[in-house]
Design goal:
Elements (H helix, E strand, L loop, with lengths): L1 H13 L3 H8 L14 H8 L1 H24 L4 H16 L13
Length: about 100
């Protein structure tokens, strides 16, 4: 049960659309401007370089930190891989955006 909840948490964390959230701080929606993508490149176009860099950093950290924590706590490699996959799937198919998410680049 604990493993299931950990995987679910990883998916939900991966689903956080940082590009959209940060762009909204500028009052803009990257889904309606530029390429329509919520990734860092389009956030640069819609909200500026600072917000684009923050989006890139947040997207990297949302995948990096949970995996490093799992490794630190001695999780077996298969569990770490599954967590990474759950994070990635959350990024590609975020529940918060009706499963329309990033490109996975």
């Amino acid at each position: 049960m604990q493993l299931f909840l950990t995987i679910l948490f990883a998916y939900l964390l991966g689903s956080v659309p940082f590009g959209l959230l940060l762009s909204r701080l500028r009052g803009r929606d990257p889904r309606k401007i530029g390429s329509g993508n919520i990734g860092a490149t389009n956030v640069v176009r819609t909200a500026g370089i600072g917000f684009g860099i923050a989006t890139l950093a947040a997207d990297i950290l949302k995948g990096y930190v949970p995996v490093i924590v799992a490794i630190h706590f001695g999780q077996p490699p298969i569990v770490v891989a599954i967590l990474g996959l759950a994070l990635f799937m959350g990024h590609l198919f975020p529940i918060y955006l009706r499963f329309k998410g990033g490109k996975g680049v």
